[in-house]
Amino acid sequence: AKNNARGSSIIFSEKHEQIIRKKSLIELALGQSVKKQQIKIYYQPIVDGQNGEILGFESLARWFHPELGQISPEQFIVTAEKMGMVTEITLYLFEQAIQDLKAWPERIYLSFNLSVHDVINRATLAQLGSILDKYQIPTNRVQFEITETTMMSDLEHCSNITKELQQQGFLIALDDFGSGYSSLSYIHKLAFDTLKIDRSFVQNIQQDARSRGVVKTILELCSSFEVRCTVEGVESKEQKDLLLELGCRNMQGYHFYRPAPFEYFKFDEP
Ligand code: C2E
Ligand code: CA
Ligand code: CA
Ligand code: CA
Hints:
Layout lengths: L1 H19 L4 H9 L5 E10 L5 E12 L3 E3 L1 H11 L2 H17 L6 E5 L2 H4 L2 H14 L6 E6 H6 L1 H13 L3 E7 L5 H4 L7 E4 L1 H5 L5 H17 L2 E4 L5 H10 L3 E2 L8 E2 L9
Parallel strand pairs: 2-4, 4-5, 5-6, 6-7, 7-8, 8-9
Antiparallel strand pairs: 1-2, 1-9, 1-10, 2-3
Helix pairs in contact: 4-6
Bound molecules: ligand C2E and calcium ion (3 copies).
The site of one calcium ion (CA) has 4 residues, from strand 6.
């Protein structure tokens, strides 16, 4: 009886805790955000640094809440992950992005960020595929960006998943490369098409010979792996010129374009 009593009191206290745990304002609001269409996509072009030509667009989520204001994706994606809401947000954003992609010239690709929850969930990945079928967009116009932190969370599984996605025709970008701690110990185990150099390396590239050295080494790595390379966070002409000198072509950053809504980008060609 004593054991029982103790057992039930533990169950009680857990439930009790769940009930009285106050959801933060953000959690409450986030639960409504998709239905209320408060989450929008901004696009940032990925360009050829040599001539400024737009090659593709990275979609970046923006949450505008009437009272809380604009909440950064870094903040709300983490909350959504905790609440088990990421799948809903991912599918909602992806469908929006694919509709937008249909309006752009065929040579333009979409680069879409996946959260760790999306990557480990085969059902979600299948649903992303169905959205492409629905809008008749070929898989090779879509690149999935997966951060090295996500990859590291389950290397074995992620390398299988990225291989499968590549077999379906999707492109894979290894995002935020160099921001983690053990990049070189896993990179040879992963299948990907593009490596995105984290913007922390670009920040100091003019003053710091070591940053230049790291970028140069990563570019050499890319060429020996036969993968493309994109540099993020290019903010000035000086940085751009230096990166071109180092042999980098694909770039992204405020120097070229800030993220902006779909309507901002117009193409004359079909
Ligand atoms: P990320 O994928 O590394 O995206 C690049 C971030 O750098 C974006 O921040 C972008 O606005 C910003 N950025 C671009 N150019 C420059 C520049 O020249 N200088 C500086 N200082 N920053 C620049 P944002 O939009 O706040 O997104 C932050 C992170 O949130 C993203 O980092 C990505 O990890 C995540 N995220 C954004 N949208 C989504 C989404 O739809 N799904 C998922 N799962 N994650 C997303
Ligand atoms: Ca990204
Ligand atoms: Ca990145
Ligand atoms: Ca990042």
